[in-house]
Design a protein that fits this description.
5-stranded mixed beta sheet; alpha/beta; 44% helix
Length: 179
């Protein structure tokens, strides 16, 4: 049965923060089976409490959370997975991750038989940032009142659209260009 921290706090007469703090301190005890890992894992990080990044590991098949670590430091991740015996770690077939450079090093050390899959979301995100960076560099070369500046500044979404989605036949009046 799923129950919220707020409900537990109300029933026990403590604050929700106390419930969360207690759960955090006993989290390691809930993971009893260090003799099993899913065949396909996903690594990522997310911004958690106090604006710090946490590491999360998921089962790629059913998206079940395997673990959440309090930080994303290489040594913390390494120490966690070293709790699993080498034969268990060698059964992992794939690990999907972002472009974080030390994830690749960790995966090679921890999971000798695993293939590394770079997540396509992060590749697309990196390309979008590169296109936007080039666009803003180009904008900075123009005077703020020039037509080119206004064109690149106002129509930034067009640069991120797929070519197939652009409509070349539809004409419209562009106020900033006065045409």
């Amino acid at each position: 049965m799923d129950i919220s921290a707020k409900t537990i706090a109300f029933e026990e007469g403590v604050s929700a923060s106390t419930v969360n703090r207690t759960l955090d301190s006993t989290r390691c005890e809930f993971r009893n089976n260090f003799n099993f890992l899913p065949l396909h894992l996903c690594f990522d990080e997310f911004r958690g409490t106090h604006n710090t990044y946490h590491f999360i590991c998921l089962d790629a098949d059913n998206h079940a959370i395997q673990t959440i670590l309090l930080n994303r430091l290489k040594q913390t991740i390494f120490n966690y997975f070293m709790r699993f015996p080498a034969p268990v770690r060698s059964l992992v077939r794939t690990v999907s991750c972002d472009l974080n450079s030390y994830y690749v090093d960790l995966i090679k050390k921890l999971f000798p038989n695993a293939k590394i899959i770079i997540d396509r979301f992060h590749i697309v995100q990196m390309l979008n940032r590169a296109v936007n960076s080039m666009r803003t560099d180009l904008i900075n070369r123009f005077d703020n009142n020039s037509k080119n500046y206004k064109l690149f500044k106002r129509n930034w979404k067009l640069f991120l659209k797929r070519y197939d989605d652009l409509n070349c036949t539809y004409q419209f009046y562009e106020r900033s260009q006065r045409e």
